[in-house]
Amino acid sequence: MRRRTLLSGLAAAPFLPAAPAVAQGTAATTLRYMPQADVTSIDPMSTTSYGVRNHGHMCWDTLYGPDETFVIRPQLAAGHAVEDDGLRWVFTLRDGIRFHDNEPIRAADCVASIQRWWARDTMGQTLRDRTDEIRALDDRRFEIRLKQKFGPMLEALGKPSSYPCFIFPERFATVDPARPFTEVVGSGPYRWVAAERLSGARAVYRKFEGYVPNPNPPSLLGGAKLAHFERMEWNWIPDAGTVAAALQAGEIDMYEQIAPDLRSVLQRHRDIVVDRIDAGGTVAHLRFNQLHAPFDNPAVRRALLHSISQADFMTAIMGTDRRQWADQIGAFPTSSVLANDEGIGVLTAPRSTDRARAALREAGYANTPVTVLHPTDVTNNNTLTTLLTDTMKRSGLNAESATSDWATVLQRRANQNPPAQGGWNAVIVLFGGVDLANPGVHPLLRANGRAAWFGWPTSPQLEALREEWLAAPDLDAQKPIARRIQAALWQDTPYIPLGQYYTDAAYRRGLVGIQKGMTLPLNLRRG
User: Fold this and answer.
1) Is 122 helix (H, G, I), strand (E, B) or coil?
2) Rounded CA gap, 229 and 217, in Å?
3) Sequence-ordered strand ranges (E) for 230-382
4) Cα gap 128→134, rounded to integer Å
5) Each residue of 383-408: b (16+ CB within 10 Å) or e?
6) Cα–Cα 20 to 30 A to 39, which of 132, 146, 234, 287?
7) What string of DSSP letters covers 199-216?
8) Strand, coil or helix: what is 488?
9) Rounded to two decimals, what is the model's pTM?
10) Measuring CA to CA, which residue among 70, 137, 61, 144 is closest to residue 336?
11) Tens of pLDDT along 172-206?
């Protein structure tokens, strides 16, 4: 009800956290942005949170990046050469590029950054396992020598998400990614302003005057990344109604991910544009922690396939308009060429908590407590987790929500200890379609134990199928492997997909330079 009250009459007081006096003033040089989540860490290798990922794209560049059609283009790289029948790759950096401390970006920095990235990223781990040697040749060139061909080299180095291969100074890149660094020396168009950081409320960036943008026209992350604003303020406001009211009042310029029930309100405002910038959608998942009981037992995980209703989860956050969401989602999103219907009947057959209870009894479930991580300050995660905990209880699990803010969830999610010692059993995770398009990049299909994404599944079957997919010569060969991967998903169940939904951004009319594909506040300017 509070949301509707705010929208019916704007309060006289400002909605945003007060900025320092020196930061007040001209709107022409400052963009005020509401991100989808707070910047909970300044190290983009520390988490797959999209708030932190997007912060990364403000402060750092990658060697390659996707344009608006998701073709990989050079970014910091000037180009590359492939030799020795695909086993030697030589990369050359653009001239004149610098870090925020005005030191030149060198090949040695790139080598160290790649090594830090491939310790964390699923595709990076595959590249690491195929690499014989990586070394700097001089300040502008480095080489990767392979033991085995790796076709998606550029797609790996140019990944825009989960995790991008950002280029750090060598002294930062040698820091263990499990120990996030606490200072930002970037390679991108904006500097991090640590002095103005207000945890849980505000992040501030300033234009880096020494930045040398890619010489090609702007196109998402595969062209120039231009900083038209001198200052960028990211204001994190958990209440969606407050954000919508601030946008209508002109107190913020852009709202990255609007709450579904506010779409029609904002669409009616003559000074606001509602725009679907990212058409790939977002898939919600139930992720199990397989290190501890009860979800170390695959039969217990599979029991929930009887009671999970994707339509119920999607309706809870998006309403009944099916143009805004899709069910019958398997291993891959609708935007992927590998999406298929293999075994989907496990989720489309009539739902039954009774069958789930019977399956749990057959699996030997002994009322072990189930700790569900529950962030209350992120709208969709909060709603989905509430429904998940209720579904688990009705299915016969002794489930309990561990409520906290988003930052605490991200910290606890990385804890491999038992739930009684600060760990967890289940969590809702959201990934954009770009992160799920194929088995090479899909973080939740990697099943290499404690080296896998949070939840740490072990499945030799899924790992073998992933390797088979990577070796497939073309899409025709990849598609049947994708069907077998989906069949293995229902058997091993490292996660359960909960449906796919589509979100819109909203911004003040007159803001131009929007790049389609990912919602990032780069290249924006006032028209």
Assistant:
1) helix
2) 18
3) 231-235, 254-255, 272-275, 282-288, 325-326, 369-375
4) 9
5) ebbbbbbebbeebbbebbbbbbebbe
6) 287
7) TTTEEEEEE-TT----SS
8) helix
9) 0.89
10) 70
11) 999 998 899 999 999 999 999 999 999 999 999 99
